[in-house]
Amino acid sequence: MGCFLLFCAALQVIFSACELGVFDLLLQSQKPVSAAEVAQNLGTSGDGMERLLDVLVGIEILEVEHTEGTAYYSSTDVANLYLAKSSPKSLHDMIIYQSQTIYPLWNTMVDAVREGKNQNEKTFGLSSEDIFSAIYRSDEEMLKFMGLMNSTWVIDGHDVVTAFDLSGFKSVLDLGGCSGGLARELAKVYPASAVTVLDLPNVVQVAKRHFSEGDAAVHFQEGDFFDGDIPAADLYILARIIHDWKEDKCLQLLKKNHSCCPPGGGVLLVESLLFENRRGPIMAQIFSLNMLVQTEGKEHPPSYYMQLLNRAGFQEVQVCRTGKSYDAILAVK
């Protein structure tokens, strides 16, 4: 029990430090800083900040040194690389989303298990039927979600796009590609391929303003892959899409992909794959619980995706476990 409480407390401490801007301040300072200086710069109480910084030292996220009776704090390489928002490898946006959106939803886990449906209405006062109206309930929430997706592909993107040799697909369409994080990883590995992200108009507009990074390798196109037309492409990517929805809707989308791609074309699914024996991986099992509180869907083992792809008309289904949070399944028409 003590270890569990320590783990939960450590998460909350990291969440709080990210929200307050502690790691960015320490990175920018270029020298150790006292708790009083951090508190003054961030507009917090000195006592509260000192306690927070001490715990961050205790969990080895920060360093501390003492000079003439005063403690001075500095960041570790881990904090500078992954927790400071300004780092190109930053997971800051992912942490903020977990803190402000996922944790409130998980507080209703008992109700979700009892009812078997998402808890957007109870948590945010929004319809449980239209899940992306809840996820994109404001411009601020949309930016947080897109930041989460960007952070996800900082960790897993390269492993996903290199799980198979995709160099033979000259045109690639990332359906629901959000901020374009995964598409950029693919464009780096396969520069000869034309890579396009298709997403809802408001998502595309925000992505261009905040996440395009001046990178001409990835193009954005407005559209609705459920209700609108899907442009022709050699390869369709559905990354973290199938797990959001019920089976009939997923099958409808995969059949639509199959009808649009040429012979030899295909679809790449990116999902967190459960083991067939239900003994893990624990991350995929946790993701599946999160799908319960937030969406209509769930995580599945490879056999589920294989039969779904076969029913949609795809053949030659290959599965690759990347060893990271997300795995890849490639199927060809």
From TrEMBL:
Extent of the signal sequence: 1-16
Pathway in which the depicted protein is active: Aromatic compound metabolism; melatonin biosynthesis; melatonin from serotonin: step 1/2
Domain O-methyltransferase dimerisation: 9-84
GO BP: any one term: methylation
Keyword field contains DNA damage: no
Stretches assigned to the O-methyltransferase C-terminal domain: 106-315
Keyword Signal: yes
UniProt-recorded Gene Ontology molecular function terms: acetylserotonin O-methyltransferase activity; protein dimerization activity
Active site: 243
Superkingdom as given in the UniProt entry: Eukaryota
Keywords assigned: Melatonin biosynthesis, Methyltransferase, S-adenosyl-L-methionine, Signal, Transferase
Pfam families: Dimerisation, Methyltransf_2
SUPFAM superfamilies listed in its UniProt record: S-adenosyl-L-methionine-dependent methyltransferases, Winged helix' DNA-binding domain
Record field: transmembrane: none
Protein EC: 2.1.1.4
Classification via InterPro entries: COMT-like, COMT_C, COMT_dimerisation, SAM-dependent_MTases_sf, WH-like_DNA-bd_sf, WH_DNA-bd_sf
Enzyme class: transferase
PANTHER family (UniProt xref): O-METHYLTRANSFERASE CICE (PTHR43712:SF2), PUTATIVE (AFU_ORTHOLOGUE AFUA_4G14580)-RELATED (PTHR43712)
Assembly and oligomerization: Homodimer.
Function: Catalyzes the transfer of a methyl group onto N-acetylserotonin, producing melatonin (N-acetyl-5-methoxytryptamine).
Protein name according to UniProt: Acetylserotonin O-methyltransferase
The organism of origin for this protein: Denticeps clupeoides
Biological classification of the source: Eukaryota, Metazoa, Chordata, Craniata, Vertebrata
